[in-house]
Design a protein that fits this description.
Chain lengths: 184, 451
């Protein structure tokens, strides 16, 4: 299980970051890959981890934090749910019911957009075009693209992703989970 | 319309299309090996120039010409950044290329790297494409194992590594200098140009930024030759020496209110109406179309009466749109309110403005707040003038911003209001019978956050 109390870099995370270092002539280029590695493991990037990343990369922590805050993608105060669902609200999805889908999902799960359920199993975030307009309206839930969703079927599709996320978490250590996609 | 055999999409939908074996069986990588053995990099640049390929990322800049801007005899390193950030609403052709035929993209990247003498290529991939990530990484691994990547490839003396780099859900990372800053580990704040990336790009070294579809075109030009490429599309206007023409096949993304949304390959110059009817199965539910986005939301809006416009690099401009953009067509049927459409567009740009330039940061947020007020039944006719004034003054073209995001934010406003003014006025008068004529300043709504 991934511990929520974990707010710092583990040696495994540092090793994963270092493995990418030869790809770039400048260690600062490792900032985004490092933030992704931390985020994948902790589902957020707390300030302690920012300080650690900065130390590993030899940068002032403020520079790492500066980059992080630009990408609203990285949560900092608390982890996002084990499933993070991005609900597209851009034009092609909106034309086919994307906005209603977002509303319906939020009310079904009793949360506001960007909110997380009390059990920590799901975060719902509005997203701009997911590059899957041929399947509008669509949702990206973890690594699964949920296509042509009608509001009635959407929750069931998300529940299926939850089950997969649970079985994956049960299967390995937190670092194993971070290594499924190199450099991610 | 004569049937057109897809080339860039030839393998899509065939079994195992993403594997090296499948790609080899279609003649893949042989062109790269031949060019590597027989041609100098400058000859490859000439090859691409003579094909008349223009970049598929949005601006349509001639690819060979862009490569020619790199300094001669530079000691290196030179970098190639392949733009796979694909975030323009309506656009998804890069995703299909990467997922279903990643080797085509990788071969194009190899050939382009060889031509530009780049020894490192970064593919900047948006976060939202996890499946494309896996497919590309697997293709890179297969190509490396086959000796097509790495040091001294096939004994040619040419070395190349291709690395994937992940974005984090920000549209502005698709702008070439925003992308460069993002790779460097910073906020994706576009740079003031010049210097152009060809002179000073990533890590302050000469850099070429090209789109994924451009890479696929390069691979096909190497395989089928420049004459094949020039035989497709719309030739250059002989009366206009500055017109580079619109050559080659194009991946049109069709979505919104059509029966069969999808990515369709057709010669440049197909009309919007042909695309909807011949490929998209017509407007959905037998309805009538009201309007369409011609090439991603930044390009503006065409009315139904303008649907016979050819979708080549010149066409959309003739009806007041910004350009062909990404050739992503989004059809809007007659039941949709243009006010709602514009609200959606303004919300997107207010969210995605990077916040560096005041006209863009404040302008996009202001536009959104006006649209929210109009939709809340508090609109005034004067708001249309304010929106147009904002639209006409924010952007690179009026010279008030660093990058083109602001022009893209302005275009849907200008097109929507100029082409559908009656609908806006009716809406405002109907929803705000007491106050539509008021011209006094109104209290501002809360500012909407930018990146
Ligand atoms: C706001 C903005 C967003 C952009 N997004 C993308 C993108 O997602 N993908 C892309 O290839 N080009 C995008 N571009 C265009 C790039 O700046 C650049 O022109 C292009 O990648 C060059 O590739 P090409 O020559 O192959 O067309 C964007 C431009 C702007 C102004
Ligand atoms: S125009 Fe907008 S997006 Fe582009 S640099 Fe300026 S503020 Fe950023
Ligand atoms: S608009 Fe929703 S995926 Fe493109």
């Amino acid at each position: 299980m991934i511990s929520h109390a974990l707010t710092r870099l583990t040696p495994e995370m540092v090793a994963e970051i270092e493995a990418l270092a030869p790809r770039y002539p400048d260690r600062r280029a490792l900032v985004l890959p490092a933030l992704h590695i931390v985020n994948k493991a902790l589902r957020h990037v707390p300030l302690d981890a920012v300080v650690d990343v900065a130390k590993v990369l030899g940068l002032p922590p403020a520079e790492v934090q500066d980059t992080l805050t630009f990408y609203q993608f990285f949560h900092q105060k608390k982890p996002h749910g084990t499933v993070r669902a991005f609900v597209c609200r851009s034009v092609s999805c909106a034309l086919r019911g994307g906005e209603e889908l977002l509303e319906k999902l939020c009310s079904q799960y009793g949360i506001q957009p960007y909110g997380t359920t009390d059990d920590g199993s799901l975060t719902i975030e509005p997203a701009e075009c997911l590059g899957a307009c041929d399947f509008a309206p669509c949702v990206l839930a973890n690594d699964d693209l949920l296509k042509n969703l009608d509001p009635a079927a959407a929750a069931a599709a998300i529940e299926a992703v939850k089950v997969r996320a649970d079985s994956r978490r049960g299967a390995g250590s937190p670092t194993a989970a971070t290594q499924t996609r190199e450099g991610a | 319309m004569p049937p057109f055999e897809p080339v860039l999409l030839e393998a899509v939908g065939t079994p195992e299309s993403h594997t090296l074996e499948s790609y080899r069986s279609r003649g893949g990588y042989a062109p790269f090996e031949t060019l590597l053995a027989e041609k100098q990099p400058t000859e490859v640049i000439e090859l691409v120039k003579s094909a008349g390929l223009r970049g598929r990322g949005g601006a349509g800049f001639p690819t060979g010409v862009k490569w020619g801007f790199l300094p001669k005899d530079h000691p290196g390193p030179i970098y190639l950044c392949v733009n796979a950030d694909e975030s323009e609403p309506g656009t998804f052709n890069n995703r299909i290329l990467m997922e279903d035929d990643p080797h085509q993209v990788i071969e194009g990247t190899m050939i382009s790297s060889y031509a530009t003498r780049a020894t490192t290529a970064y593919i900047y991939l948006r976060y939202e494409y996890p499946h494309a990530w896996d497919r590309l990484q697997a293709a890179i691994d297969e190509a490396s194992a086959a000796g097509l990547l790495g040091d001294n490839i096939k004994g040619s003396g040419f070395s190349l590594n291709i690395y994937l780099h992940r974005g984090a859900a920000a549209y502005i990372c698709g702008e070439e200098t925003g992308l460069i800053e993002s790779i460097e580990g910073k906020r994706a704040w576009p740079r003031i140009k010049p210097p152009f990336p060809a002179i000073e790009g990533v890590f302050r070294k000469p850099t070429v930024v090209n789109n994924i579809e451009t890479m696929a075109c390069v691979a096909q030009i190497a395989r089928r030759g420049p004459d094949w490429f020039r035989s497709i599309g719309v030739p250059a206007d002989p009366e206009n020496p500055r017109d580079p023409g619109s050559y080659g096949p194009k991946l049109y993304c069709l979505s919104g209110h059509v029966e069969k949304p999808g990515c369709y390959e057709a010669p440049l110059g197909i009309t919007l109406r042909e695309l909807i009817n011949d490929y998209g199965g017509g407007v959905w539910k037998g309805r009538k179309a009201k309007a369409a986005i011609p090439g991603g939301i930044s390009m503006g809006l065409m009315t139904e009466a303008e649907f016979d416009t050819p979708l080549d690099f010149k066409g959309p401009g003739t009806v007041g749109c910004m350009g062909l953009g990404t050739a992503a067509v989004v059809v809007i049927d007659e039941t949709v309110s243009i006010v709602d459409f514009l609200h959606n567009s303004c919300r997107f740009f207010a969210h995605e403005s990077c916040g560096q330039c005041t006209p863009c940061r404040e302008g996009t947020s202001w536009n959104l707040r006006i649209l929210e007020r109009i939709r809340a039944g508090k609109g005034r006719l004067k708001d249309l003038e304010i929106l147009l004034e904002n639209g006409n003054t924010m952007g690179m073209m009026p010279g008030s911003t660093i990058c083109g995001l602001a022009d893209g934010a302005a275009w849907p406003i200008k097109n929507a209001i100029n082409k559908f003014r009656d609908e806006f006025e009716d809406y405002i008068k109907r929803t705000n019978p007491e106050g539509w004529m008021v011209t006094d300043p109104v209290p501002a709504l809360q500012i909407v956050g930018a990146h």
